[in-house]
Every structure is written in C-alpha cells, then in structure tokens.
Amino acid sequence: MALDQETFELLKASVQRFVQERLVPAEDQVEENDEVPEDIVADIKELGLFGLSIPEEYGGIGLSMEQECQVAFELGQTALAFRSLVGTNIGIGSQGILMDGTAEQKAEYLPRIASGDLIISFALTEPDAGSDAASLKTRAVADGDDFLITGTKRFITNAPRAGAFTLMARTGGPGAGGISAFIVPAGLPGLSLGKPDKKMGQRGTRTCDVNLDEVRVPAANIIGGEPGKGFKTAMKVLDRGRLHISAIACGMAQRILRESIDYAQQRKQFGQRIGDFQLIQAMLADSQAELLAGWSMVQEVARRYDAKPFGVHDPEVSMQASCAKLFTTEMVGRVADRGVQIHGGSGYINEFKVERFYRDVRLLRLYEGTTQIQQLVIGKHLMK
Ligand code: COS
Fold it and tell me: Is the pTM of this model over 0.85?
C-alpha cells in the first residue's frame, strides 16, 4: 500500500504549507487555551489527515509507512497537540482493526475513522499496568453473546473526544495470552471519563482516565472475532506507532534546531552574533548531526517495515522500530536541551518557543514504550 509518488509529493507540499501558514501561527493560542481551536480541527479533517494510513478502499489516503513518516516529520515541526489530535486515528487507535479486524469491523469503523468523524483512542495502560502491559487487570466476563467489561484505563490520549476505543481487556487467564482487544463505543452505559490530566507539556492534547463498570460489549466487537489475540495486536500496533513517534521526534528536532539557528543569528554578545562563536556552533553541529542520523534511521526502518507483509510480526523489524524510537526520542531531548542552552536565559521564558518544546518532547521518551522498554525489546532480541 502506498500513494503514487507524484500525488504524494503534492500532499506533502500541502501539509508543509498548512503547517507553516495555519498551524505555526496558532501555536500560542493552543498553548494559552490548552486546546486546538475547532476551526483548525475542521481544516485538519478537510485535508484528510485523519485518514493518512487507512487504505483508499476505506476512504483514507493509503500512505505507506515510509510516506507516513515523511508526513509525520512535517507535522512534528509544530506544536505537538496538532499531531496528537490525528495520531490515534492514524496509528494506535485504528491499526489494530486494520491489521487483525474482521471484514465487517473494517467496513463499519475504518471509513469514519479515516474521515475524522469518529475519533478512536487506544486503551491499554492502566493504573497498575504501564510498561508491564501483559499484567493488565481490566476484565471482560462473558455474558451470553456479550462481554461485561470492568476496569480503569489511564492516560488515554483523545479519550475526551473519542467515539470509540480499541481497548485491551482480560478474557482469559494471566499473562499475554489471556488478553483480547475490543472495539468499545464511547457512549455505552457504565463507561465514564475521569478529569482531564494536567500535564507537564503538550498543552492542547487531551488525555484522561476511562472507567468501565460492567460495560456491555457484544462478543462480535472482539477484534478479529477470536479472544486471546489482543496482546499481540497491541504489540504490532505499537511497533508501527513507535516508528511514527520517531518521525515526529525528528520533525520536532528540526524545528528546535531552526529556532536555535535563528536565535544564534540575531542575538549579539561580546560585539558579535552568538552563532559566530564556535562553542555555539558546536551545539548546533551536534544537533544537526544527530538529527540526520535519527532521520536516516527512521526512513530506513520504515522502508523495511513496508517490505514485510502488512500486519505480520517480524521480530527483526520490531527490534529496529525500537532502535529508532530509542535513538530519536533521546536525540530530540538533547536537541531541545541545547536549544534552551543556546537561548540562554530567554530559553527559560515561555514566550520563546524552545521553552515549551523542551517540555513537549519529554513525553516522547515515555509513551508508546519508555526508552527502557525499547532497550529491553532490543536486548531480548539480540540475546535470542
Ligand atoms: N508483535 C507481535 N507479537 C509480539 C510482539 C510484537 N511486537 N512482541 C511480543 N509479542 C508476542 C510474543 O511473541 C509472545 O507471544 P507467544 O507467547 O506466542 O510467544 C507474546 O507477545 C508475549 O510476549 P513477551 O513475553 O515478550 O511479553 P512481555 O510481557 O515480556 O512484554 C514488553 C513485552 C515489555 C515489550 C511489552 O509489555 C511492552 O511493549 N511494554 C510497553 C507497553 C507500552 O508501550 N505501553 C505504552 C502504552 S500506549 S501509549
């Protein structure tokens, strides 16, 4: 699956323009009001961004992973709240249905996810199950043709906007084999949302708990129709998500580097531009070199991801996706830190963008698997 190159270049150019002309000017508003304005949500829908990764037969744009990463690189160059809005529809919310769903599930949900009419969230994490995802406690108990789901899901991105959740719950015994993935519509009796999370950064993104109290969901909503496969579905979705996040990290590194160069060119100390001092150039050079390394890695792993059969677990590619997430998200943390350093005291002041980007990128090393989880995935694979 991929868009033909010519159409893709046009799409990429329009996303670049949209980011520069529409999203960048709205960054302060998002930061101040802690929300993405509704007219921008409408424009994002209009551009088709919710459906980037969904095949054309379901109304999406049908990008390959390599192409998706290139678009994510563009979207990463502005406040991360914009990307977060579409992120669950493009990735962790929708891809389980696309990879493992039945024909009926795909036909019912994917077109509305692609258009953005349905926001779908990914609900795996719980209060006591973060990195150890296979220990999740949310239970789904069979009751006739239905399941009754009870438990709490934590830090769920886009939950306040969601019309449905790809939600992992335990239908069987302990461990990964006892987990099933359900499509859970948001309006069902017994499902309620917690207070919005107050976060360190990424203002404008919406996350909260999702509480389930005997929520009745038809057995037909188990992704793929067969219980016990949900953990593997979630892991495959995360492999893909980790590459997408890596591209975002590179986009944000590019933006922070640009902000740092601009500042180094206009700020004068000791009678000259600070960018003329070699100690400042050294920081810019390290950021540029690491960004190039990270971005080259993302593109290469995305190509390998595209080369394997879709939705099939290839442990080598999973390991490489973890390498990309590990390297790029740590890299953007260093680039942001240097960005603040180059700005000096101004880098600590909210009106300069690097202050907020420094806070925003901190999350990239945590969600969709911490740096330490990526190290574990890589290490375990190497020792096999
Ligand atoms: N794709 C498909 N299947 C996978 C997989 C992948 N990437 N990784 C593991 N599996 C399979 C394994 O093959 C194994 O199947 P079998 O039992 O048939 O052999 C099963 O899943 C369990 O795997 P494993 O024993 O490796 O699971 P662990 O409990 O040790 O967990 C980690 C592995 C730690 C890697 C996993 O829990 C994880 O990624 N944690 C982080 C969760 C996360 O990213 N959370 C973010 C939430 S979303 S913002």
Answer: yes
